[in-house]
Specification:
The complex is a heterotrimer of chains A (230), B (248) and C (482). With 230 residues, chain A is an alpha/beta fold. Chain A has a single domain (51-206, 222-229), classed as Rossmann fold. Chain A is 29% helix and 22% strand. The radius of gyration of chain A is 21 Å and the shape is globular. Chain C is built from 22 helices and 12 strands. In chain C, a hairpin with a 5-residue loop joins β11 and β12 (443-445). Chain C starts with a helix and ends with a helix. Classes of the chains: A alpha/beta (230), B alpha/beta (248), C alpha/beta (482).
Chain lengths: 230, 248, 482
Amino acid sequence: MNQQAFINRVRSRLGRSGADGIPQWTPSLPIPDAGPTDPEALVERYQAELAKLSGESYRVASEAEVAPLVVRILKEAGASGPVARWDDPVLNGLGLDEALTAAGYPVTPLRHGEPGRPQVELVEKAAAGITGADFAIAETGTLVMGSSRPGDAAAPGRGRTVSLLPPIHIAVVQKEQFVYTAAQVFRQLRQMGVLPSQVIFASGPSRSADIENDLSIGVHGPGQVHVIII
Amino acid sequence: MQGLKVSLFITCLADHFYPEVGEAVVHLLRRCGCEVDFPPNQTCCGQPAWNTGLEDEAKAYARAYIETFENSEYVVMPSGSCAGHVRYFYPQMFKDDREMYRRACAVADKTYEFSQFMVNVLKVKDVGARFPASVVFHNNCHMQRELGVKEEPLELLRHVKDLVLVENPRYDLCCGFGGAFSVKMPEISTAMADERLGIYVGTQADMIVSCDGGCLMHMGGRAERQGLPVKTIHLATLLWEGVKNSGL
Amino acid sequence: MPDLKTRINTALRDERLRGAVRYTADNLRTKRNAILADLNEQAAQGMAIGTFDDLRKQARRIKEHTLKHLDYYLEQAADQIRQSGGTVHWAADSADVVRITEEIIERRQAKKVIKSKSMASEEVALNHALEAKGIEVVESDLGEYIIQLAHETPAHIVIPAIHKTRQQIADMFGEVAGRQLTTDTPTLTRFARETLRQKFMAADIGISGANFLVAETGTICLVTNEGNGRLTTSVPPVHIAIVGMDKLVPTLEDLAVLLGLLPRSATGQKITTYFNMITGPRRPGEPDGPEELHVIFLDNGRTNLLGSKYEEALMCIRCGACLNVCPVYRNIGGHAYGSIYPGPIGSVISPLLTDFGEWTDLPQATSLCGACHEACPMGIHLHEHLVRLRMDAVEKGKADPGFTRLMKLWMTAWRNPTVYRMAAKIGRLGMRPFVKKRPDGTEVAERLPGPFAAWTNTRNVPPIAKRTFHERWAELEKEAQR
């Protein structure tokens, strides 16, 4: 079937022989601006929601505290092996590579312009994946991460698999990135222009109840999620 | 409220199998000062035809009901299922016929299930009954959903002296009668009755009270066959027995 | 396939299945009720985008509008997908989907396919067709993987393997592993994770469905908990999405409403672990992601509903809430329905998608209680559609002829008041031979002949009263006059 035939069938069922012009549509919400706007309130709510989902979160006062905390998280999790990370400005200035390598975790940043299987295979072998985020949603304990920076498809190496393949996901977010609802994220994404090929909303570790309704954690995605909030 | 003129629609099930329910309704309405008449040419509301896909036959029954009752002030019936059918489906049936639609809406507006009428129109919650038993109320599906009547029967029961009203843990769960479904799909219908009755037996209530003859016949018939320690009774019957019991 | 009655009776005899179905349905229902109560409370304090009823109303507006302009939104979506580097295909029916998929497989010389949960792909029996051509197809959703190993169909839309015990699961996994596995959840989960991870890494093509498709950006949206949806659509070099044409929504912002309803209605979650938004294949320079994205828009009978009195059923977001409240479903489980879509929604769309073919009798398997309509986040009047389908079946001559003839005869005659009153007398007489006295003097019938045996096989029935209400009225009238 080709497009024209498909569309014609739709039109004939709708009782029309041709197009009907551009439909007028304004999305709306009953309570469009729900929730608090104060970053402290948002972070607090986010942490509570993430905890309910068996995710871990940490507050640090400055960027300098991030790298040592990441090392601590990995050691406490008993992780061993290489660590993958986004190659992205939000992470590049944190001194992660030095700290991690020194602690026995060689680092493989994803690089812009080197796509393909070898990249994915490296990430697959990593003990942990470190990313930033575009937003954090307080109402549901959710991180929003684009495979490239939203609105800037030429931005360097983020990708999809760093937050997905390794068993541990560590994310670094700034408290200014917090919003209350997913609706606010959709609104902002809409204004950001071209979308990355993937935007993922991730809320805690992966789970399933397919075995006798019993909860399994860490099914295909990461079994541990750690969020560091600056 | 005194002196309301009420036409009784007996419903085919009550007419044939539970006429005492009709008698109870008449006595209770009269006690509240109503004048009750009974148009003799009434038959069935037509729900069996509607539910088995016989649209034309169902509309014929609807027309007959409309013609019979459209000059009444109020129409009251001891069945949430029939009242629901009249109020919810009669107007829909005549969407394409302006005049019949108007008449259907008009008669639907004055059609009430018994407990709905008592509590919402007559404003009566206490009929002065005494009925020492523990009972659980069975919410007929059409009554709670199409008709939107949930609290009214409970209000009436709460005011009965010496009656213990036990909570219904799954008031949303259908008993499995479903009209023709009960004989067309008897295996599922019976399985549903068993689950429903199991829950009621679990409440340890002596009696299941309902506002619908179909549910009562189905649950009562199954409970007896299975030797379950629970009896079924119509709300109107319980209230009228309770009034007689109270020595007033 | 055996007929509906046989399938139902088989299911009714399977106590374990019924127990599992009931447990799952009650579990999901309870969670849904709790999360909706929470939502309403939060909304009352301005801490959520709306109450359940508010969201339901807005969701209906979104879908009503979209369906009314479906041609526009399909074209807009197609343009956007192409602009972002994807390829668009149009499938009138199952054969088209299979052909399109096989062409892609052929061109890519693909041998291994991995799938994330897609009801649309099951609707078109894609796995079967591909396996017949020697392609390895692996279901990656844990529940779907389990039933794939068991060679069965799903028992529930959201949790497909509820009828399997952990022992059965351990045995099946053990066969794949070549060793015995313990039955604890972590062991079974770890096994599934490791086995399927290898499959993800080796797959040539990942196939998914879509929960929503945003027309203004051509974005495919997937709602999952396990991560297999992400892996299927990120790791293999080719991603094929099979998208029912009813999945469209106009804008990104409309997602807020639908995402607010779907996880809550399905599993009682505020949001699923992952909500994946895919717009085109990997952008040039992105370090990973598929090279090719194919979107196959699927009709397969959906246009039968469009523009008909059943159009509303196209608003379904496949949450399964109707299954979880249905008193029939909880007694017979998903398989008895036979169709890929079970329960109330399945009983409505299955006959319609297949033009009143083999699923015409599914609307018989309901007591019309209306719980489905009450639970549906889109407010679909499922209970009314079921009655209308019964009417359509009669009109098309596809209803049980004996039963229909009997009902028609009875209902036509009975409308006459004289016949009605006479029938009572005849019925009373007819029942007499079967009526017994209870110890307390009241009467009951335990066995009736012919079609009435369907009642008395399992239930007692009161006899027709010695005097019907009609026959007592004269006396009652006199009472009032005294």
